[in-house]
Amino acid sequence: MASLSAAFTERLEAAARALEPLLGALLGSAPLAGEIVRPPRLLAAMRHAVLDGGKRLRPFLTVETARLFGETGDGPLRAGAAIELLHCYSLVHDDLPAMDDDDLRRGRPTVHRAFDEATAILAGDALLTLAFDVLADPAVMADAAVRTELVLGLARAAGLGGMVGGQMLDLEAENRSTPFAEIEVRRLQAMKTGALIAFAVDAGGVVARAGGEERRCLAAYGRALGAAFQIADDILDREASTDVLGKRAAKDADRGKATLVDVLGIEAARAERDRLAEEAVAALAPFGPAADTLRAAARFAATRRK
Q1: What is the pLDDT of residue 2?
Q2: What is the domain range of residue 250?
């Protein structure tokens, strides 16, 4: 187990190292064909939101899932970069005063604090749009049908019935007179957090042209992993310090957010987190030892400390 943990950590860090220069290049100052100019202040805000921070778990999942099927080219990393750009947009907007009103993200001032609210809104908009630009580029995959499937999948995971819809439910939970029931909390979290994590896994399968049954196993893995990740996040919000998290601790309780910690209690939530991590691990059984890194990712999601 110790060696597997070390191998997982190295793979996670290696994926992050490979991703960073790609993200930097995608956020370069030179305009692309069809662009006129990239405003320096807007670009600086986007780079502040994206570069030099975060675990890069979502692109890691895309890269490692593709690797499971023998696809190790540049395509999975570019697909992962698109997902990371979209994820970072969501953090910029979530931190705004109209949403979660946070001053700290990844140990640094949030974008609206480092710049201003209007710039933060536009930076989020631009990151969202850039994500689809990257995913639609033939550099991801020459096959247009594969790129179309990726674009559609990301749109569904990130939009009305996915991440954005989940954020709306999250805001509704804060303002409702009666607490969300367990089934409502699970649905909210499956949308707000789980949908993008599940898509990050599926995207690796799409790029690598995995088969139907293989994709179904990956979908079960991604759903359980996303749910475990969110419960772990809720527990950390209650138990970890601001210094450790790199963002304000205890904010969910302060704002009355709907979490399984509130519904189940801290110990039962911890048990459910671990059960979901093992459910994710079990979904990978058909892939044998080749999926050990993805299994380690599920356990990492449950046991991480920040």
Answers
A1: 44
A2: 2-303
